[in-house]
């Protein structure tokens, strides 16, 4: 292992917060990392870490070396990506992260077709609803709803994301069809809920053009779109959700949009997120394929919702 590699290893130890976690990420023994950091200190002739049996702290020299190591890692990544862009054929490993529903229903079809066209590309798809650190975890591309909070990442809008208020015909027969937004407060609702997002009201624009919030009464909460769908299909709750979740079931008349005269603002759009503008060939081609499949002007799921172009619009 050369000095550059050891510097990157030092950076990973600091980012992970311990030798053990850094070793776990690399799938190597903790002692290997400890020995390599010691060798780095010998090479540079300066102590980088103050160690105890359970923790460590950076020396002043160590803090400076970590800054340089971060710059070095970015330079190395940029160099590799630049070289890959000269390949005429897509090849190599493409690591993609996505929320579970988007990955299963909108990315897998793209992946299957993409690998038929580019068999030398290996794809790893990580389905995870938590927001990850793309750089430290080594992902090339992420598909998420909403813009990333990390301003250092590049975000490209893939598709708009319209909101719907949905129930089954049987639910409407049992509870009656709401006429105004205030009627929803009396109806049982299924609502998305996670560590970061909770739907306990519905945003809409009133007749005077002012934003309003209508509280709802969730009797079932989940962070999984399929679980919410099953609850709504049980005829025991209505749901407010982005169109891409339930489009096929609306097309098959299993779900009915309600209060379509109300002006519902779009939910956060779907974005493709990546760490660098200079994309490798395989990443750029996959992003193009995903955008083409999903459809930018009119997302493919909207084609499955009859009359959506006349629903939930400003008056």
UniProtKB/TrEMBL annotation:
GO terms of biological process kind: DNA-templated transcription
Keywords: DNA-binding, Transcription, Transcription regulation
Record-level Gene Ontology MF annotations: DNA-binding transcription factor activity; sequence-specific DNA binding
PROSITE patterns: HTH_LYSR
The HTH lysR-type domain, residue ranges: 1-59
InterPro entries with a match to the protein in the record: LysR-type_TF_proteobact-type (IPR058163), LysR_HTH_N (IPR000847), LysR_subst-bd (IPR005119), WH-like_DNA-bd_sf (IPR036388), WH_DNA-bd_sf (IPR036390)
Coiled-coil regions listed: none
Residues annotated as transmembrane: none
Gene3D superfamilies: 3.40.190.290, Winged helix-like DNA-binding domain superfamily/Winged helix DNA-binding domain (1.10.10.10)
Pfam families linked: HTH_1 (PF00126), LysR_substrate (PF03466)
SUPFAM superfamilies named in the record: Periplasmic binding protein-like II (SSF53850), Winged helix' DNA-binding domain (SSF46785)
Sequence similarity: Belongs to the LysR transcriptional regulatory family.
UniProt cross-references to PANTHER family, sorted A to Z: HTH-TYPE TRANSCRIPTIONAL ACTIVATOR TTDR-RELATED, HTH-TYPE TRANSCRIPTIONAL REGULATOR
Name used for this protein in its record: LysR family transcriptional regulator
Species this protein is from: Pseudoalteromonas luteoviolacea CPMOR-1
